[in-house]
């Protein structure tokens, strides 16, 4: 577990009851780094208004010393503006916009995401999430937008300092807790979940087993939601167990966590590549990964319809570039339907995939981790349907499954899955494939594969969770040596 340091400009800023974890910038400059020190988090309360100021150097040195700083140098640069430049804008919406418009004053102070003015609280949380810094200033523009700026502990009035210290105590007690009694736990992991998600990648039983497997390799893991993820730098690793998308908080958190030096699965590159079927198709073609005949379509013109018919015939499958769990995938039977559906899809996206239709009784799913297969499933088609998932009007349904040891999977399937995963990276992936008439076709690579209790783990049991957490521990060890 990490220890916490709180750094201020000089002795005049130290509270009367400051403990040993409080120190001045000069003390931090002279006394650190120390040999054999545990992983350290640093709250930088110094003034960061000027480039190359003590506040700037405090976070910069923390980064060099591998101390996780709040704010990071990146955040300082985002907030630092010349006097003739406005700060970044935030555009409140819904209830937050209404409450800010009714606030009695045009400005507010935010301490660790908290604001004493109730009307500003929603915007305060948004501002802290976007620019995690101990002290932020908010200013309401005539347009209703809110300007975000940095604040300085040294410039606070006595009452404001009291509010800041109260928020700091709440923040550190909630977010940066004391180490557990178990000294074996060297690292901390956040497992990102969405409690409201109807079909999450891992159910409660699987999450409990991930947490137990993590402890066995020295990782203290806990589930968090997005509103508990600021600042993510308090953790050593991030394991995303909610459905990902590019225009989604999961991708932004993955990017932020990677910038903060965490070991991340799913890493942002994998999300970016897996969430777009256009990329996968192009990469498969370029690198010789076996896949079904596919066209990239950018118009619903008669000539494009002719091209699709000539190359793929009917039925043909149309796919949105981004989609999961069989959503955004349509089977087309004739030209009028093709013209109508393609036109509708091109109103949502610039490009659409048209793919040859290949019915099989089941799809293979090969779980890949760090370039090697770790589990295998056969997902059968939903009853009276051509896909694994059937999104009906009344309720969704899915077919059955078989879980097998990887050594019972046909070698062609494993080879194709390994080649497809290498196109994306070295993370945790689920490669979907079809096998027909002696040929294997890769359908897609999923960056956030389902791992549910009693399904994907049916053959390996707890060993599946142990394999994944052992890979996290290996990467954490390598990061430490760097």
Description:
This protein has 482 residues and is α/β, with parallel strands linked by helices. The chain has four domains: 3-175, no CATH class; 187-270, Rossmann fold (3-Layer(aba) Sandwich), CATH 3.40.50.20; 293-356, ATP-grasp fold, A domain (Dna Ligase, domain 1), CATH 3.30.1490; 360-446, D-amino Acid Aminotransferase, Chain A, domain 1. It contains 14 helices and 23 strands. Strands 21-18-17-22-23 form a five-stranded antiparallel β-sheet. Strands 2-1-3-4 form a four-stranded parallel β-sheet. Strands 5-8-7-6 form a four-stranded antiparallel β-sheet. α7 (204-216) packs across α14. It is globular and about 80 Å long. Residues 176-181 have low confidence and may be disordered.
Protein traits:
alpha/beta, Rossmann fold, Dna Ligase, domain 1, 4 domains, five-stranded antiparallel beta sheet
Alpha-beta content class: alpha/beta
Mean pLDDT: 86
Q: What is the overall shape?
A: globular
Return the domain count. 4
Integer-rounded radius of gyration: 26 Å
Strand content: 15-25%
Biggest sheet features: 5 strands, antiparallel
- How many helices? The count is 14
List the helices and strands and how they pair.
Elements: E1 3-8, E2 22-24, H1 25-31, E3 40-44, H2 54-64, E4 68-70, H3 73-79, E5 89-90, H4 94-101, E6 107-111, H5 121-130, E7 135-140, E8 146-150, H6 158-175, E9 187-192, H7 204-216, E10 219-224, E11 237-240, H8 249-259, E12 263-265, H9 268-274, H10 277-287, E13 294-297, H11 302-312, E14 316-319, E15 329-332, H12 335-346, E16 352-356, E17 362-369, E18 372-380, E19 389-391, E20 396-398, E21 401-404, H13 411-424, E22 428-436, E23 439-446, H14 462-481
